[in-house]
């Protein structure tokens, strides 16, 4: 008998039929003799619909009010899932983020989990109940509802798993785990049986959307073994855990950002005068900087655009604020190779650049880190670039990892 | 400078444009120098949509889970309204039922307000903020979210008004106050400038849907003066307050139930053997009995059908349980005249019966109470019967009340 946390994403509970399917899956796990805590996201497009409604009513809606609003999405799906499980004959109770003891930092709309006071969840499990927890939300020190930012339900699942010392934490979505590349772009992509925390963090940062990077970091810090699985089949999925590098550095997977903003500052004067201001201007928009590369008197910033409501006005704002002294380029994308220690291996870096060149893709800039190589390319070429990297590193039998 | 509670119903906040309109109305009240607490219902059909989704997933969903689910409807509209008010430049904060200190009885899905701990609302008002409160919900002694039953947001508004000692409590809907009859049925119906608590309670019980009967009872008990007004114009609406009877009893307004179940027990044996069982069978379904009439060895129950999810199966259940010894008749409706002391005035009762007879309507049963006369008629004749009563009592200049 194990204690299992299962997290079901929005596409897994997008309609009544899918909620029934998820309920059956949870009940099967329960009847196999396990205790189950299910963490659930909002149904399908609910969060986006609520956000769009808010943005049609207020240009810059209060984040406290936004959090109150968005938290309803997961509360709706948690109640529906709980009553469906009860209908199948199992004892079940749903708990909101605050009721589940998820404590967060104060900042609304992008809070981080600071602690999980798991008493209530544990008591309900002891009473023999399945517990359904609303993902993506918690409560701050002022007793207000907060939300955890995009993909926050993954973090809820990992944090609850750490808090109740679960034996397993399974993150369900509509794909069979973590792939060597996005299978919608690369036909030859295949699921990986295991990934280390550090590699998964890099893949997520560089655009792999299966798992939220913060959730992976949380799992890493608390050493929670996470399994990414598909809601709609019984494939084993991908285990994310601690793993040491063995043998030569090699590329484990590739990922991409279809759209980035590239901000570049050139020359010592500009850097000294404006360097901090640019970072501040970006920071005050609460936007995540994907990578910063410094090289002598130039600094390049790559900014992922997923969280920017109005990309063009954001870019124009930067251009205007810095009066043409800073180059701001949209229509950019990136492709990255990820693997333990590959960034320090000149051979791997050279192979990547050669593969892209051979495919006729101009690399505008490249950044190597410990466990990743990232190449900036024109947005329309991202697909071709990703396929070229995948073909180079992951379709050649010599390079491909053995299946564990 | 007054302290004003304004309640806006679901049709007043049914879409973004209407939310903007309500926000402007609240801001105007604020800018006229008043403190405002706005109580808000769920947008349009939200509650019904959530309820239908729940019922498609579970035959008899847990009421605790239902309350968690339905409470989201008002939380969505409160957040959206609050951010829209902020967009107009006023300080505003939204509070859920529990945050607003609404304490209720334990029973889920049909809880009653026991107390309002108004400290948080008062503090926010003192800080100069408009407060938006989610209607229809509260928290029970176990700290769980409860809902107040159909029309519960009216009760929230009255209870908050009593709790913060508001100077005014305005209930907004899409009609100009309380009419002498439902204007969708009776063309000649007109808004009444004032109604007493007891008359409003009777009108509401007998089918007038402008104000929830529990809300009126709460207002009566706490002596909160309520004004029913229209969201979309500046008509003065109807004041509901303490009012003494003056002069001869007269009919103030008429109301109807388009659909009722009529349960009748005939004979001393049946009454003794089954009387209590029938009441229990109805009670366990949490259904409101509109009126019970005892007359020698017969008892008649009229049951409003608004809260019955499946009317036919409910009626069939009663018939089967009591093996044909109890007559259960659907397809019934009722029309009622309401006015202080009219039930004790033989002349008024006779006039009502004559008016219906003249209109060719068969009265299957009639019940007179202190302040009402109710006639049971076939469901298809409800409209004609209501028009006949209205014409008899409220379109004759001698009988019609003077405008105050």
From TrEMBL, chains A, B:
It catalyses: L-aspartate + ATP = 4-phospho-L-aspartate + ADP. Residues 335-393 form the Aspartokinase ACT domain. GO terms for molecular function: aspartate kinase activity. Residues 3-225 form the Aspartate/glutamate/uridylate kinase domain. The keyword Kinase applies. The keyword Amino-acid biosynthesis applies. SUPFAM superfamilies: ACT-like, Carbamate kinase-like. Its EC number is 2.7.2.4. Pathway: Amino-acid biosynthesis; L-lysine biosynthesis via DAP pathway; (S)-tetrahydrodipicolinate from L-aspartate: step 1/4; Amino-acid biosynthesis; L-threonine biosynthesis; L-threonine from L-aspartate: step 1/5; Amino-acid biosynthesis; L-methionine biosynthesis via de novo pathway; L-homoserine from L-aspartate: step 1/3. Keywords: Amino-acid biosynthesis, ATP-binding, Kinase, Lysine biosynthesis, Nucleotide-binding, Transferase. Belongs to the aspartokinase family. PANTHER family: ASPARTATE KINASE, ASPARTOKINASE. This is Aspartokinase. It comes from Natronospira bacteriovora.
């Amino acid at each position: 008998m194990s204690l299992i946390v299962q997290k079901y994403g929005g596409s897994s509970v997008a309609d009544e039929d899918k909620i029934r399917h998820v309920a059956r899956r949870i009940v099967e796990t329960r009847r196999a003799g396990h205790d189950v805590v299910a963490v659930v996201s909002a149904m399908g497009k609910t969060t986006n619909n609520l956000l769009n409604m808010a943005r049609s009513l207020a240009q810059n809606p209060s984040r406290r009010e936004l959090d109150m609003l968005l938290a309803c999405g997961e509360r709706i799906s948690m109640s529906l899932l709980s009553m469906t499980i009860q209908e199948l004959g199992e004892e079940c109770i749903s708990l909101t983020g605050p009721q589940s003891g998820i404590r967060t930092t104060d900042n609304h709309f992008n809070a981080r989990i600071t602690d999980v006071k798991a008493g209530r969840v544990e008591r309900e499990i002891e009473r023999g109940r399945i517990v359904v927890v609303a993902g993506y939300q918690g409560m701050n020190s002022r007793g207000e509802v907060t939300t955890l930012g995009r993909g926050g339900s993954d973090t809820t699942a990992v944090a609850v798993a750490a808090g109740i010392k679960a034996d397993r934490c399974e993150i369900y979505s509509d794909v069979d785990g973590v792939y060597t590349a996005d299978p919608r772009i690369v036909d030859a992509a295949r699921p990986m049986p295991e990934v280390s925390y550090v590699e998964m963090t890099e893949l997520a940062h560089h655009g792999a959307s299966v798992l939220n990077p913060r959730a992976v970091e949380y799992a890493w810090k608390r050493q929670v073994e996470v399994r990414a699985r598909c809601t709609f089949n019984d494939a084993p999925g991908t285990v994310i855990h601690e793993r040491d590098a063995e043998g030569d550095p090699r590329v484990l997977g590739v990922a991409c950002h279809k759209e980035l903003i590239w901000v570049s500052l050139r020359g010592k004067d500009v850097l000294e005068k404006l360097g901090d201001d640019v970072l501040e201007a970006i920071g005050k928009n609460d936007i995540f900087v994907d990578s910063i590369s410094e090289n002598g008197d130039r600094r390049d910033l790559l900014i992922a655009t997923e969280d920017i409501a109005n990309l063009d006005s954001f870019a124009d704002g930067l251009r205007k604020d810095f009066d043409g002294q800073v180059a701001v380029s949209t229509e950019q994308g990136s492709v990255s190779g990820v693997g333990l220690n590959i960034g320090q291996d000149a051979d791997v870096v050279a192979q990547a650049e050669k593969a892209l060149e051979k495919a006729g893709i101009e690399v505008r800039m490249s950044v190597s880190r410990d466990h990743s190589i990232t190449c900036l390319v024109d947005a329309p070429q991202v697909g071709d670039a990703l396929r070229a990297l995948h073909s180079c590193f992951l379709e050649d039998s010599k390079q491909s990892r053995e299946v564990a």
